[in-house]
Amino acid sequence: MIRQVSIVPAILSDDKQDYRTQAERINYFTRRVQIDVSDGTFAPTKTLDITNIWWPKNWETDLHIMSARPSEMMDTVLKLSPSLCILHAEANEDLMPTFALLKEKGIKAGVALLQSTYPGNVEHYIKAADHVLIFAGQLGAQGGAADLMQMEKIPLIRNMKPEVEIGWDGGANMSNIRAIAHADIDVINVGSAISKSENPAQMFEELVAEIDKNGVVL
Fold first, then answer.
1. What pTM was estimated for this model as a whole?
2. Residue 189: DSSP 8-state
3. How far is CA 136 from the centre of its chain?
4. Which of 41, 70, 197, 204 has a CA between 20 and 30 Å from the CA of residue 213?
């Protein structure tokens, strides 16, 4: 049986007005949102600085930090108090102290794995995390193709920590979201398929309906 899968709209922006526009467009049909933050030390692009990030009080926010030194952002992260903070396993520092700090403050800790990262090499992070994000797209950008071979990581992660929430980030759209949803995933983050749609709410509902289908025809 398919797991209960959540579709989570993602915001990635380097402009204050564009960020606000994206937030306002999705605010009335979703409560869980992923916000991508990049300082240019890890991803090839920069987003709006984390000090300019905000969200409505009723959101359940997943903050995805693309930084080689995420500990340097923690003062701001703690003030923002997201529901979940996702850090990259490939960062240039030990994530365990930051995980401990987040959990001490009541924030769930997540770890993201790039395409080239084998789960067995970061098992200590996976076992310590509340959420594991399988990154299958283009870092720091939206609209790229999904690397569906990344699904092979799912059973490896489940064997390490069966109860962990597993997320997918990168290239999810109407053509592949059902396959991703049926691969034992809990959360699918969707960027451009929603943000670039003329009617984001309708696209969200169509994606939800698509993952509920069981077979090729129905």
1. 0.94
2. E
3. 11
4. 197
Domain around 41: 6-211
CATH of the domain at 66: 3.20.20.70
For residues 11 and 23, the answer to whether their CB atoms sit within 8 Å is yes
pLDDT in tens, the chain (218 residues): 457 899 999 999 999 999 999 999 999 899 999 999 999 999 999 999 999 999 999 999 999 999 999 999 999 999 999 999 999 999 999 999 999 999 999 999 999 999 999 999 999 999 999 999 999 988 766 767 899 999 999 999 999 999 999 999 999 999 999 999 999 999 999 999 999 999 999 999 999 999 988 654 44
In a domain, 181, yes or no: yes
- The partner residues of 60 in beta bridges, in order of sequence, read 32
- d(CA 12, CA 2) in angstroms, rounded, equals 29
d(Cα 9, Cα 33) in Å, to the nearest integer? 5
Does the residue 174 lie in any domain? yes
**Overall residue count recorded for the chain in this entry:** 218
Q: Name the domain count of the chain.
A: 1
Domain for residue 189, yes or no? Answer: yes
CA distance between the termini of the chain: 15
Q: SS3 of 60, please?
A: strand
- The 3-class secondary structure across 115-183, one letter per residue, is CCCCHHHHHHHHHHCCEEEEECCCCCCCCCCCCHHHHHHHHHHHHHCCCCEEEEECCCCCCCHHHHHCC
